[in-house]
TrEMBL record:
<dbReference type="GO" id="GO:0004360">
    <property type="term" value="F:glutamine-fructose-6-phosphate transaminase (isomerizing) activity"/>
</dbReference>
<dbReference type="GO" id="GO:0046349">
    <property type="term" value="P:amino sugar biosynthetic process"/>
</dbReference>
<feature type="active site" description="For Fru-6P isomerization activity">
    <location>
        <position position="603"/>
    </location>
</feature>
<dbReference type="Pfam" id="PF13522">
    <property type="entry name" value="GATase_6"/>
</dbReference>
<comment type="function">
    <text>Catalyzes the first step in hexosamine metabolism, converting fructose-6P into glucosamine-6P using glutamine as a nitrogen source.</text>
</comment>
<dbReference type="InterPro" id="IPR029055">
    <property type="entry name" value="Ntn_hydrolases_N"/>
</dbReference>
<dbReference type="GO" id="GO:0097367">
    <property type="term" value="F:carbohydrate derivative binding"/>
</dbReference>
<dbReference type="Pfam" id="PF01380">
    <property type="entry name" value="SIS"/>
</dbReference>
<keyword id="KW-0677">Repeat</keyword>
<dbReference type="InterPro" id="IPR001347">
    <property type="entry name" value="SIS_dom"/>
</dbReference>
<dbReference type="GO" id="GO:0005829">
    <property type="term" value="C:cytosol"/>
</dbReference>
<dbReference type="GO" id="GO:0006002">
    <property type="term" value="P:fructose 6-phosphate metabolic process"/>
</dbReference>
<dbReference type="InterPro" id="IPR017932">
    <property type="entry name" value="GATase_2_dom"/>
</dbReference>
<comment type="function">
    <text>Involved in the production of the root hair deformation (HAD) factor specifically on medicago.</text>
</comment>
<feature type="domain" description="SIS">
    <location>
        <begin position="456"/>
        <end position="598"/>
    </location>
</feature>
<dbReference type="GO" id="GO:0005975">
    <property type="term" value="P:carbohydrate metabolic process"/>
</dbReference>
<keyword id="KW-0032">Aminotransferase</keyword>
Length: 608
């Protein structure tokens, strides 16, 4: 959620810290701050809003110092004001924090009873106040850190400065990720390897429960009990992924148009196109032997999983239990240890997804991760990793990660079908040929529909609400369309199974309600058309997304019909994702919202 970066070395740090924060802004962007030690004192600059405000402040009032910690915030406790922005200072202690201190209120009461005065509404301030108290009680920096970590519960990544040890950064991790980077006479700390990429590609990820002491000469890593531990030093590939918007107005637009290329990379990993067979990479889980599959994820990744469920059940006859991770982990689902579980996540750091993974791991299930960030905690905690190879996705609204997740799930489901003997070699070949066609079809669809989606978006931008309908795999896609529209345009939108319309949502239909119907000419088509009739009869304004056969078969009058090429049912969800992404994108552009960093959201959600 929040992003942390820190440097200790022999050169000024504040400008470099802010540059590194820019690469972490996807984690949160409601306020930011940086603290250094110079002339034996802690000093800081903080600003509400985007990083630009902090940069402006620093330009007018520079911050010297060879050691510093910095933070970009996604508010949990306390409004996104400058006063609540990190770093928090108390009595010679500076703290930045990502996560939630769950027992903050109890610690705060004790500290207040002891005479402390709090100046922010954040949970983080208890860490600073507690450390300051422990130092006043006579503990040195390391001892205070160890004692503080024994007192706090919850999820945290922390970086701490003490004014009286101006060459040392203390750091701790329980939950949200933290990476230590190695330089020449300099050490770095960051929420991820991308933040550190311009400084170093040699990194060590702290394990859960670890804490660390960084000086310019190196790092000591300790476990929760304070015992020295060694964690692997690895070469990160993050530097290869430094990105910009190219000729596009927004990262989201760029990422939409990258899809044909990245999907072809993703497929290349799972499919042997010369033989038209699914390759060994898709069999890192022994699908033939498992009795069932559990899938869990959040947001868009969950909707990809829901489409995956249709495929695993249809092609591999494999029963799938799926739920959003925040429910899954608490449901007490009767899961067999012989089963496997797939966790889908672009960032690989989503707290609820990770908690569901650990829950399944404790039950003894085989764990698979469908992730974009292959160095992430979810990837590192899994038995089998299925990278989606989408490249960095910067726009908060997920687009290319979604279709790459789908492409990988489609390949896994076909591979599982082969392994379980529920599809023949010839059927596998046909399905793989359909997958192989996908990048080319996506490129031509993107090219063909763009002007139409833009002019439709002009109309949609005038609406207050929208309904998306679909059946089969188009039902999760309808939910994804609604999620995409609401998160970036702030128009209220809901996605429903088309058959559910008459059980309640139909009450919302009138001449002001746009209804986006996603209906390829598949085995559900006629039924969806009947639901469309019900909308038309009540004056609803239908935006009909179909294929050539569907357009020819439907005689209904619509506000607009988007006609895509006829494609096989397996690849339809990826192709039909394109108009819903473009519709949301252009609507948001017309509304003038912050498309890449919509309000209240963050790209990586590392709190429950
Ligand atoms: O990084 P993850 O894939 O685990 O993130 C899950 C969701 O937070 C994410 O898909 C979210 O719903 C997106 N903003 C949707 O566009």
């Amino acid at each position: 959620m929040c992003g942390i970066v820190a440097i200790v070395g022999t050169r000024p740090v504040s400008e470099r810290l802010v540059d590194a924060l820019k690469r972490l802004e996807y984690r949160g962007y409601d306020s930011a701050g940086v603290a250094t030690i110079h002339d034996g004192q802690l000093d800081r600059r903080r600003a509400e809003g985007k990083l630009f405000n902090l940069e402006t402040k620093l330009a007018g009032d520079p911050l010297p110092g060879l050691i510093g910690i910095a933070h970009t915030r996604w508010a949990t406790h306390g409004a996104p004001t400058e006063n609540n922005a990190h770093p928090h200072f108390t009595d010679g202690v500076a703290v930045v924090h990502n996560g939630i201190i769950e027992n903050f209120s109890e610690i705060k009461d004790t500290l207040i009873a002891d005479g402390a005065t709090f100046s922010t509404q954040t949970d983080t301030e208890v860490v600073a106040q507690l450390l300051a108290k422990l130092r006043r009680d006579g503990l040195d920096g390391r001892e205070a850190m160890q004692a503080m970590l024994r007192s706090v519960t919850g999820a945290y990544a922390l970086a701490v400065l003490f004014a009286d040890t101006p060459g040392t950064i203390l750091a701790a991790r329980s939950g949200p990720p933290l990476a230590v980077g190695y330089g020449e006479q300099e050490m770095f700390l960051g929420s991820d390897a991308i933040a550190l990429a311009p400084f170093t590609n040699e990194i060590t990820y702290l394990n859960d429960g670890d804490w660390a002491v960084l000086t310019a000469d190196g790092v000591d890593i300790l476990d929760h009990d304070g015992n020295p531990v060694t964690r692997p030093r690895q070469v990160s590939i993050a530097a290869a992924y430094m990105v910009d918007k190219g000729n596009h107005r927004h990262f989201m637009e760029k990422e939409i148009y990258e899809q044909p290329e990245v999907i072809s990379h993703a497929l290349g990993h799972y499919v042997d196109f010369t033989e038209n067979r699914v390759s060994a990479a898709a069999s890192a889980i022994d699908f033939a032997r498992i009795p069932s599959l559990a899938i869990s994820a959040c947001g868009t990744a969950y909707l990809a999983g829901l489409i995956g469920k249709y495929w695993f059940e249809r092609y591999a006859r494999l029963p799938v239990e799926i739920d959003v991770a925040s429910e899954f982990r608490y449901r007490d689902i009767p899961l067999s240890p012989d089963a496997a579980a797939l966790f889908i996540s672009q960032s690989g750091e989503t707290a609820d997804t990770l908690a569901s993974l650990r829950y399944c791991k404790d039950l003894g299930l085989t764990i698979g991760a469908v992730v974009n960030a292959s160095e992430s905690t979810i990837a590192r905690s899994s038995d089998a990793v299925f990278p989606i190879l989408a490249g960095p996705e910067i726009g908060v609204a997920s687009t290319k990660a979604f279709t790459c997740q789908l492409a990988v799930l489609a390949a896994l489901a076909v591979g599982a079908g082969r392994a379980r003997g529920t599809i023949s070699i010839e059927e596998e070949r046909v399905l793989v040929r359909h997958l192989a066609e996908m990048p080319r079809i996506m490129a031509s669809v993107l090219n063909a529909i763009q002007p139409k989606m833009e002019s439709l978006a002009r109309e949609l931008a005038k609406c207050q609400d929208a309904i998306y309908l679909g059946r089969g795999t188009s039902f999760p896609l309808a939910m994804e369309g609604a999620l995409k529209l609401k998160e970036i345009s702030y128009i209220h939108a809901e996605g429903y199974a088309a058959g559910e319309l008459k059980h309640g949502p139909i009450a919302l239909i009138d001449e002001n309600m746009p209804v986006i119907v996603i209906a390829p000419h598949d085995r559900f088509f006629e039924k969806t058309i009947s639901n469309m009739q019900e909308v038309a009869a009540r004056g609803g304004r239908i935006i009909f997304i179909t294929d050539e056969r569907g357009a020819a078969a439907s005689k209904l009058e619509t506000m607009s019909t988007i006609v895509l090429p006829n494609v096989d049912e397996l690849i339809a969800p990826m192709i039909f994702s394109l108009p819903i992404q473009l519709l949301a994108y252009h609507t948001a552009v017309f509304m003038g919202t912050d498309v890449d960093q919509p309000r209240n959201l963050a790209k990586s959600v590392t709190v429950e």
